[in-house]
Amino acid sequence: MIRSARLAALVLLASLGLGACSASDGDDGASGGTVTVFAAASLKESFTELGERFEEEHPGIEVTFNFNGSDSLAAGIVGGAPADVFAAASPSTMARVTDEKLTADAPVTFARNRLAIATAPGNPHGIGSLEDLATPGLKVVLCDATVPCGAAARKALAAAGTDVTPASYEQDVKSALTKVRLGEADAAVVYRTDVRAAGDTVEGVDFPEAAQAVNDYPIARLENAPDAPAADAFVAFVTSPEGRKVLGKAGFLAP
Protein backbone atom coordinates (compact mmCIF):
# COMPACT_ATOMS: atom_id res chain seq x y z
CA MET A 1 0.00 0.00 0.00
CA ILE A 2 2.79 2.39 0.93
CA ARG A 3 4.64 1.53 -2.28
CA SER A 4 1.45 2.14 -4.32
CA ALA A 5 0.90 5.51 -2.63
CA ARG A 6 4.46 6.57 -3.38
CA LEU A 7 4.06 5.51 -6.99
CA ALA A 8 0.86 7.51 -7.33
CA ALA A 9 2.57 10.55 -5.83
CA LEU A 10 5.47 10.26 -8.29
CA VAL A 11 3.06 10.01 -11.21
CA LEU A 12 1.23 13.12 -9.98
CA LEU A 13 4.46 15.08 -9.59
CA ALA A 14 5.63 14.00 -13.03
CA SER A 15 2.36 15.13 -14.62
CA LEU A 16 2.58 18.48 -12.85
CA GLY A 17 6.14 18.89 -14.06
CA LEU A 18 5.14 18.16 -17.63
CA GLY A 19 2.30 20.66 -17.37
CA ALA A 20 4.68 23.34 -16.11
CA CYS A 21 7.06 22.67 -18.97
CA SER A 22 4.34 22.90 -21.60
CA ALA A 23 3.06 26.16 -20.14
CA SER A 24 6.52 27.72 -20.41
CA ASP A 25 7.13 26.68 -24.04
CA GLY A 26 7.46 29.94 -25.99
CA ASP A 27 7.87 33.07 -23.93
CA ASP A 28 5.36 34.95 -26.12
CA GLY A 29 2.44 32.75 -25.07
CA ALA A 30 1.83 31.45 -28.60
CA SER A 31 1.79 27.66 -28.63
CA GLY A 32 -0.22 26.66 -31.67
CA GLY A 33 -2.96 27.55 -34.11
CA THR A 34 -3.21 29.64 -37.26
CA VAL A 35 -2.43 33.31 -37.81
CA THR A 36 -4.34 34.90 -40.68
CA VAL A 37 -2.56 38.01 -41.92
CA PHE A 38 -4.14 40.57 -44.25
CA ALA A 39 -1.17 42.33 -45.85
CA ALA A 40 -0.62 44.92 -48.58
CA ALA A 41 0.30 43.42 -51.96
CA SER A 42 3.73 45.07 -51.87
CA LEU A 43 4.60 42.97 -48.81
CA LYS A 44 4.13 39.63 -50.57
CA GLU A 45 7.76 38.59 -50.94
CA SER A 46 9.05 39.87 -47.61
CA PHE A 47 6.07 38.67 -45.55
CA THR A 48 6.16 35.25 -47.19
CA GLU A 49 9.74 34.91 -45.97
CA LEU A 50 8.83 36.29 -42.55
CA GLY A 51 5.97 33.80 -42.31
CA GLU A 52 8.29 30.89 -43.04
CA ARG A 53 10.81 32.05 -40.45
CA PHE A 54 8.08 32.63 -37.89
CA GLU A 55 6.75 29.10 -38.38
CA GLU A 56 10.25 27.70 -37.88
CA GLU A 57 10.59 29.55 -34.58
CA HIS A 58 7.03 28.73 -33.47
CA PRO A 59 6.37 25.05 -34.22
CA GLY A 60 2.68 24.29 -34.40
CA ILE A 61 1.67 27.75 -35.66
CA GLU A 62 0.70 28.18 -39.31
CA VAL A 63 0.70 31.59 -40.97
CA THR A 64 -1.70 32.21 -43.85
CA PHE A 65 -1.76 35.39 -45.92
CA ASN A 66 -4.26 37.41 -47.89
CA PHE A 67 -2.26 39.81 -50.09
CA ASN A 68 -4.27 42.53 -51.81
CA GLY A 69 -4.66 46.27 -52.14
CA SER A 70 -4.75 47.85 -48.68
CA ASP A 71 -8.10 49.50 -49.31
CA SER A 72 -9.72 46.19 -50.28
CA LEU A 73 -8.27 44.51 -47.21
CA ALA A 74 -9.48 47.29 -44.93
CA ALA A 75 -12.96 47.05 -46.43
CA GLY A 76 -12.97 43.31 -45.84
CA ILE A 77 -11.96 43.70 -42.20
CA VAL A 78 -14.61 46.37 -41.60
CA GLY A 79 -17.11 44.05 -43.27
CA GLY A 80 -16.31 41.27 -40.82
CA ALA A 81 -13.75 39.13 -42.65
CA PRO A 82 -11.96 36.90 -40.11
CA ALA A 83 -8.32 37.94 -39.67
CA ASP A 84 -5.75 38.20 -36.90
CA VAL A 85 -3.34 40.83 -38.20
CA PHE A 86 -3.56 43.74 -40.64
CA ALA A 87 -0.45 45.21 -42.28
CA ALA A 88 -1.28 48.20 -44.49
CA ALA A 89 0.75 50.25 -46.94
CA SER A 90 -0.36 53.58 -45.49
CA PRO A 91 -1.71 55.07 -42.27
CA SER A 92 -4.84 56.28 -44.07
CA THR A 93 -5.94 52.76 -45.00
CA MET A 94 -5.15 51.52 -41.49
CA ALA A 95 -7.30 54.40 -40.18
CA ARG A 96 -10.33 52.86 -41.86
CA VAL A 97 -9.92 49.96 -39.44
CA THR A 98 -8.88 51.90 -36.33
CA ASP A 99 -11.75 54.35 -36.80
CA GLU A 100 -14.08 51.39 -36.36
CA LYS A 101 -12.14 50.39 -33.22
CA LEU A 102 -11.21 47.06 -34.77
CA THR A 103 -7.56 46.92 -33.65
CA ALA A 104 -6.48 45.65 -30.25
CA ASP A 105 -3.76 48.27 -29.84
CA ALA A 106 -2.45 51.33 -31.63
CA PRO A 107 -0.83 50.35 -34.94
CA VAL A 108 2.97 50.32 -35.09
CA THR A 109 4.93 51.57 -38.10
CA PHE A 110 7.28 48.75 -39.08
CA ALA A 111 8.65 49.92 -42.45
CA ARG A 112 8.60 52.66 -45.05
CA ASN A 113 8.58 52.52 -48.84
CA ARG A 114 9.19 54.87 -51.74
CA LEU A 115 8.29 54.86 -55.40
CA ALA A 116 10.14 54.12 -58.62
CA ILE A 117 9.24 53.89 -62.29
CA ALA A 118 9.20 50.36 -63.70
CA THR A 119 10.03 49.94 -67.40
CA ALA A 120 10.82 47.04 -69.67
CA PRO A 121 14.40 45.72 -69.39
CA GLY A 122 16.81 48.10 -71.06
CA ASN A 123 14.39 51.02 -70.66
CA PRO A 124 13.63 51.09 -74.42
CA HIS A 125 11.74 54.40 -74.25
CA GLY A 126 14.55 56.17 -72.42
CA ILE A 127 12.40 57.17 -69.44
CA GLY A 128 14.43 59.15 -66.95
CA SER A 129 11.90 61.20 -64.98
CA LEU A 130 8.25 61.58 -64.10
CA GLU A 131 7.97 64.25 -66.78
CA ASP A 132 8.82 61.61 -69.40
CA LEU A 133 5.66 59.70 -68.47
CA ALA A 134 3.63 62.43 -70.17
CA THR A 135 5.22 61.63 -73.55
CA PRO A 136 2.45 61.22 -76.16
CA GLY A 137 1.86 57.59 -77.10
CA LEU A 138 3.55 56.20 -73.99
CA LYS A 139 1.41 53.60 -72.20
CA VAL A 140 1.60 54.26 -68.47
CA VAL A 141 -0.31 52.47 -65.73
CA LEU A 142 -0.92 53.74 -62.22
CA CYS A 143 -2.47 52.26 -59.12
CA ASP A 144 -5.98 53.45 -58.39
CA ALA A 145 -6.21 56.57 -56.22
CA THR A 146 -7.77 54.56 -53.39
CA VAL A 147 -4.67 52.34 -53.15
CA PRO A 148 -1.64 53.67 -51.21
CA CYS A 149 0.72 53.34 -54.18
CA GLY A 150 -1.77 55.31 -56.30
CA ALA A 151 -2.14 58.07 -53.72
CA ALA A 152 1.65 58.30 -53.41
CA ALA A 153 2.08 58.40 -57.19
CA ARG A 154 -0.33 61.28 -57.50
CA LYS A 155 1.49 63.16 -54.78
CA ALA A 156 4.80 62.64 -56.59
CA LEU A 157 3.35 63.66 -59.96
CA ALA A 158 1.91 66.82 -58.40
CA ALA A 159 5.33 67.62 -56.93
CA ALA A 160 6.82 67.24 -60.40
CA GLY A 161 4.10 69.38 -61.95
CA THR A 162 3.29 66.57 -64.35
CA ASP A 163 -0.12 65.41 -65.53
CA VAL A 164 -0.31 61.83 -66.77
CA THR A 165 -3.32 60.14 -68.34
CA PRO A 166 -2.78 56.45 -67.65
CA ALA A 167 -3.79 53.62 -69.93
CA SER A 168 -5.35 51.94 -66.91
CA TYR A 169 -5.73 52.16 -63.15
CA GLU A 170 -4.84 49.01 -61.22
CA GLN A 171 -6.23 47.77 -57.90
CA ASP A 172 -2.83 46.93 -56.43
CA VAL A 173 0.84 47.52 -57.11
CA LYS A 174 1.51 43.96 -58.31
CA SER A 175 -1.13 44.32 -61.02
CA ALA A 176 0.48 47.54 -62.22
CA LEU A 177 3.90 45.90 -62.36
CA THR A 178 2.51 42.87 -64.20
CA LYS A 179 1.28 45.12 -67.00
CA VAL A 180 4.88 46.17 -67.64
CA ARG A 181 6.25 42.64 -67.31
CA LEU A 182 3.74 41.37 -69.90
CA GLY A 183 4.47 44.22 -72.31
CA GLU A 184 0.96 45.62 -71.92
CA ALA A 185 2.36 48.92 -70.62
CA ASP A 186 5.56 50.87 -71.21
CA ALA A 187 5.89 52.08 -67.65
CA ALA A 188 4.27 51.96 -64.22
CA VAL A 189 4.77 53.90 -61.02
CA VAL A 190 5.28 51.29 -58.31
CA TYR A 191 7.34 50.78 -55.17
CA ARG A 192 11.09 50.29 -55.35
CA THR A 193 10.63 47.06 -53.41
CA ASP A 194 8.45 45.66 -56.20
CA VAL A 195 11.05 46.57 -58.81
CA ARG A 196 13.68 44.75 -56.76
CA ALA A 197 11.44 41.70 -56.31
CA ALA A 198 10.84 41.54 -60.07
CA GLY A 199 14.54 40.98 -60.72
CA ASP A 200 15.66 41.32 -64.33
CA THR A 201 12.10 41.24 -65.72
CA VAL A 202 11.86 45.02 -65.35
CA GLU A 203 14.17 47.98 -64.95
CA GLY A 204 13.74 50.62 -62.26
CA VAL A 205 14.11 54.36 -62.65
CA ASP A 206 14.42 56.50 -59.52
CA PHE A 207 13.14 60.07 -59.41
CA PRO A 208 13.68 62.82 -56.81
CA GLU A 209 9.98 63.48 -56.16
CA ALA A 210 9.72 60.03 -54.59
CA ALA A 211 11.20 61.53 -51.43
CA GLN A 212 8.03 63.61 -51.07
CA ALA A 213 5.72 60.60 -51.27
CA VAL A 214 7.17 58.04 -48.86
CA ASN A 215 4.61 55.64 -47.38
CA ASP A 216 4.66 54.45 -43.78
CA TYR A 217 3.54 50.84 -43.26
CA PRO A 218 1.58 50.19 -40.02
CA ILE A 219 0.73 46.80 -38.51
CA ALA A 220 -1.73 45.84 -35.79
CA ARG A 221 -3.38 42.87 -34.19
CA LEU A 222 -7.12 42.95 -34.73
CA GLU A 223 -9.47 43.19 -31.75
CA ASN A 224 -11.46 40.09 -32.70
CA ALA A 225 -8.45 38.02 -33.76
CA PRO A 226 -9.38 34.32 -33.58
CA ASP A 227 -5.89 33.53 -32.24
CA ALA A 228 -4.77 36.59 -30.28
CA PRO A 229 -1.58 35.15 -28.66
CA ALA A 230 -0.24 33.89 -32.00
CA ALA A 231 -1.20 37.19 -33.66
CA ASP A 232 0.66 39.21 -31.02
CA ALA A 233 3.68 36.95 -31.50
CA PHE A 234 3.64 37.55 -35.27
CA VAL A 235 3.43 41.33 -34.87
CA ALA A 236 6.32 41.20 -32.42
CA PHE A 237 8.33 39.14 -34.90
CA VAL A 238 7.74 41.57 -37.77
CA THR A 239 8.91 44.50 -35.64
CA SER A 240 11.89 42.61 -34.21
CA PRO A 241 15.49 43.09 -35.44
CA GLU A 242 15.18 39.85 -37.43
CA GLY A 243 11.98 41.07 -39.06
CA ARG A 244 13.47 44.41 -39.97
CA LYS A 245 16.50 42.68 -41.44
CA VAL A 246 14.25 40.75 -43.84
CA LEU A 247 12.35 43.90 -44.74
CA GLY A 248 15.58 45.83 -45.29
CA LYS A 249 16.86 43.13 -47.61
CA ALA A 250 13.68 43.54 -49.66
CA GLY A 251 14.36 47.26 -50.02
CA PHE A 252 12.08 48.69 -47.36
CA LEU A 253 13.29 51.67 -45.36
CA ALA A 254 13.51 51.59 -41.58
CA PRO A 255 10.59 53.29 -39.81
TrEMBL record:
SUPFAM superfamilies named in the record: Periplasmic binding protein-like II (SSF53850)
UniProt entry tagged with the keyword Signal: yes
Keyword Metal-binding belongs to the record: yes
Assigned keywords, A-Z: Metal-binding, Signal
Annotated Gene3D superfamilies: Periplasmic binding protein-like II
InterPro entries registered for this protein in UniProt: ModA (IPR005950), ModA/WtpA (IPR050682)
Segment forming the signal sequence: 1-23
Entry similarity comment: Belongs to the bacterial solute-binding protein ModA family.
Protein known as: Molybdate-binding protein
Organism the protein comes from: Streptomyces griseorubens
